[in-house]
Amino acid sequence: MIVISPPAADFLPRRINFATNRAGELNATTLRLRLFGPMAVQDSAGKGLLPRSRKTRAVLAVLALASPRPVLRLELIALLWSQRERQQGRASLRQSIHELLDLLTPAFPRLLIVDRHQLALRTDGLWIDATAGSTPEKPGAMLLECASRTLLEDLSGLDPAFDRWLERERQRVIALATTMGEAILVEQQDDPTRLDTAEKLLVLDRAHEGAWRAIIRTNADRGDRAAALAAYERCRAALAEFRGTQPSVETEDLMVRVHAIEPAADVASVTPSRDLAAGIPGEITVKSASRNSRAGIRLSVVPLRVLGATPDDELSVGLAEEITTALSRFRGISCVPATSLAALAGDFRPDAIFRAGLDVDFVLDGTIQRSAARVRVMARLIDMRSAGEVVWARRFDRDATDTLSLQDDIGAAIVAQVDPELLMHEGERAGSRSLVDPTAPELVRQAVPAIYRLERGGFHAAGRLLETALAAEPGNCLAHAWYSYWHLFLVGQGWAENPPEATRRAVELAERAVTLDPGDARALTVAGHVRGFLAKRPDEALGLHDRARALNPNLALTWCFAGLARSYLGQHEQALQSMEHAVRLSPSDPHLFFFDTAMIMPHLLCGRFEAAADVGRRALELNPWFSSACKGYLSSLGHLGRKRQAADVLARLLALEPGFSVAEAISRSPMGQSEDVECYAEGLRRAGLPETSAVSIPERIRQLPVQSPQYVGH
Predict the structure, then answer these.
(1) pLDDT on residue 309
(2) Tag placement on the chain: N or C end, fewer CB within 10 Å?
C-alpha cells in the first residue's frame, strides 16, 4: 500500500505561512492552488496555469499536499499509472514533469524541485486554499470551510490506485476539519462565530449532535426559544435519518433549560405597512406562529389512477411515494399521508375529503396511460379550499423502459413545478383577501409574488411585509431567506440607497437563515448566491449550492444559482448545463425570466452573441422590469452592431437604473476572469452606454418611474 500523505496531526502545520506576510496577504509572486472543488491553479494576477492533462494536475496536487516533503517518482507512478508497465509509467511521468516545468518555470523558476528519484514543491511562493491565513496559533484557518467541498472533485477516475488514495485523503481532511470545528465550539464564546462553526460542521455531518447542541444553546442564551426548539426538532430528525438514534441525555438535559425560557407573546406589536396592491397605509397585527399553527401548506399525494385494461399499481403507488418524498424536502409544505384518500377512488370534492377525516389544503392526483413503450402521466393540483379548483395541471410523456427511472424522472418534474406554483398561488390568495391577525409565514407568502414581479411599488411593500414577519417571529428561517433574496434584488436593480449596507444586510439575513435551518435547501442556495453575486466569492458559493442540491435536487433555483457561480468562475459551458437543467425541471417557473437572464452571460462570454441576444430578448419579454436582463442583452447587441435595437434596450435600462454606466457595470460585476469583464464592458460601450455617470444613488432612486414604459427592444 502506498501512503504519501502524513498523519492527520501534521497535515496543516507543515505548510503554515505559505508565501504570506503577517497579515495573511499573498506576496507578489505566489502560485495559488485551489484543491477543494474543481482544481484551479493561478498566479497572483489571476492568470490560469492549470495543466491541460488531468494526470499532470494530479501530480501537482499530490506534491502540494505533501509539500515541502519530497515524493518518490516510483510512488507517483504507482498512484497514477498502476495498470501500465513500469517503463511506460516512467515515460508518462516524465511527460507530466515537462508539462509542469513548461507551465511553472517562467513565473516560478524555483518552485518545482526535480531530481532522478523524487519531486517536491517549495513552500516559499505557494498558496493553498485550505491553509490560507494560517498561523502557528490557528493552523489551517480555512480548512473547515473548504472541507464542505469535495477535495479534487474533478480528478476522480484517473486510476484505481489514485482513487483509493484520494478517498483516504478526503476522509482524512473531513476528520481533521471536524476536529478543528469541535475545538472552536469548545473555545469560542462569540455567538456568531459559534453558530457559523456549527453550521459548517453540519454541512460535513448532518447528524453532528455537538453542533446541534451549540445552535440550541446559543439560541437559548439569546432568549430565542422558538429557534432553539426548532433546532432541537431538526436535530432529532437528522439523528433518526442518518444514525437511527435518538438525542443523547446531554441534549435532552439542555432542552429542559430551553423549556424554562418564557415564550414570546402570541401577538406582536402593531407594525405599519402598506397594502401590496393599492399602496394604502395601514396596520398589520401579526400573530406568532409558534403555537397552535399548522406547519405550512398541507398537501396530500394520492396514488395515480391507471386508465386502461392493464393494471399498473406498481408505477401508480411508486410515483405517488416518490412525489411525496420529494415534496417533503421543501420547507413550507407539509405532506399528509394519503391512506384515507386512496379509498375515495378519485372523488376529491371537499365534502368527500372532510368525510374521510383528512384536513388538507391541496390534493395532487392524476392518471397513468400506457401505449406500447410509452407512458403518459397527467397530474393536477387541486385546491380543496376553493371547491376543488384545479390550480395546476401538466402532461408528461416518457419512454417506459425502466419503471424506477420513470418514477424518478416524472416525480422530479412534477415536484419542481408544484413548489413554485404553490408559492405563487398561496401568495396571490393571501394578497387578495384581508388577513385577520396574519402569521409570519402568511406574510412571507404574501410577499413572494411581488418579489417575482419586480414592480417597484409592490416590491418595496413586500420588503415591509418581510420586515414585519421577522419582527413577529425572529426564528423563522423562510422569512430570513426571502428577505435576504429581496435584498439581492434591491442591490441588483440599483434600488438600494446605500448599496454597502443593503449588501451587509443580505449577508446577515442569509447566514442567519442557514443557522436557523441548515437543512433548508432554499436558504442554503440563497446564501450561496449572496456570496457569489454580492460578496464576489463564487468558489465558496458553489459549496453551498452543492449542499442545497444534495438536500433537494428538485429545487430549480439551486441549479440556476450554481450555474451563475460557475459562470463567475469562467466555467461557462458547465454553467449553461446547470442553467438548462433548471429550465427542464420547471419550464413554467415564475422565475423563468431569471433563468433566461442567467444564460445570457455564458453565451456572451463564449462569443455566441446571437444566442445571447435571443435569450436576452426572451428574458425581457417575460419580465420587462428586470434590469439585469437589459445589461447582458445590451452587451450582446453591442457586439452584434445592432444599433437600433441597442438604443431601445438602453432606454429601458436607463429608465430602470438612471445613470447606470460602464464603470458601474465593471465595479458591480462578480465575474472573476478579467477577459470576461472586458468582453461584457466592451459590448456595453459599443451599445452606447456612457463610460461614467454623474448621477448619485439617492437621485437615481427618486428618478425611477412608478410605471415602466412598454418594452420595445425586439
Answers:
(1) 58
(2) N
Could you give the residue ranges of the DSSP H alpha helices within 105-159? Answer: 143-146
Q: Cα dihedral sign for 199, 201, 204, 206? A: negative
Helix (H) or strand (E) holding 612: helix 609-622
pLDDT band per the 50, 70, 90 thresholds, residue 272: very low
309 or 421, greater pLDDT: 421
> Which of 130, 236, 143 has the alpha carbon at shortest distance from 182?
143
| Four-CA torsion 406, 412, 414, 416, nearest 10 degrees | -160
Taking a C-beta distance cutoff of 8 angstroms, is the pair 331, 312 a contact? no
Tell me the pLDDT band of 581, cut-offs 50, 70 and 90: very high
Q: How much is the average pLDDT of 542-567?
A: 92
Strand partners for 299: 335, 362
**Burial (Cβ within 10 Å: 0-12, 13-18, ≥19) of residue 709:** exposed
Residue 448 CB contacts under 8 Å (≥ 6 apart), including other chains: 423, 424, 427, 462, 482
Cβ neighbours for 347, distance < 8 A, ≥ 6 positions apart: none
For residue 390, the cross-strand partners are: 382
- Spatial separation of the C-alpha atoms in residues 101 and 93, rounded to whole Å: 12
pLDDT at position 294 over 70: no
Residue 32 near residue 127 (C-beta atoms within 8 A)? yes
Least confident of 2-16, 127-141, 231-245, 590-604: 2-16
Residues 158-168 as b or e (16 or more Cβ within 10 Å = b): bbebbeebbee
Looking up cell 405563487 gives 424
Residue 619 confidence (pLDDT) above 50: yes
Q: Whole-angstrom Cα distance, residue 101 to residue 98?
A: 5
Could you tell me the three cell numbers for 50?
A: 492549470
Contact indicator for 283, 272 with CB cutoff of 8 Å: yes
Q: pLDDT averaged over the chain?
A: 81
In angstroms, what CA-CA distances link 61 with 35, 51, 166, 273, 480? Answer: 7, 11, 10, 56, 39
Whether pLDDT at 445 is above 50? yes
Q: Which amino acid is at 40?
A: A
Q: Are 671 and 635 in contact (CB under 8 A)?
A: no
Q: What is the mean pLDDT of residues 675-686?
A: 94
- Which set of grid coordinates corresponds to residue 257? 433549560
Whole-number percent of the chain with pLDDT over 90: 37
- 669-to-492, 536, 646 alpha-carbon distances in Å: 10, 8, 20
Give residue 711's pLDDT: 33
Rounded CA-CA distance 62/162 in Å is 10
Q: Which of 82-91, 357-366, 407-416 is predicted with the least confidence, judged by mean pLDDT?
A: 357-366
Q: Can you read off the three cell numbers belonging to residue 108?
A: 516560478
Cβ–Cβ under 8 Å, residues 5 and 79? no
Structural domains of the chain in order of their starting residue, each with its CATH number: 8-179 (1.10.10.10), 204-259 (no CATH), 297-431 (3.40.50.10070), 475-587 (1.25.40.10), 590-714 (1.25.40.10)
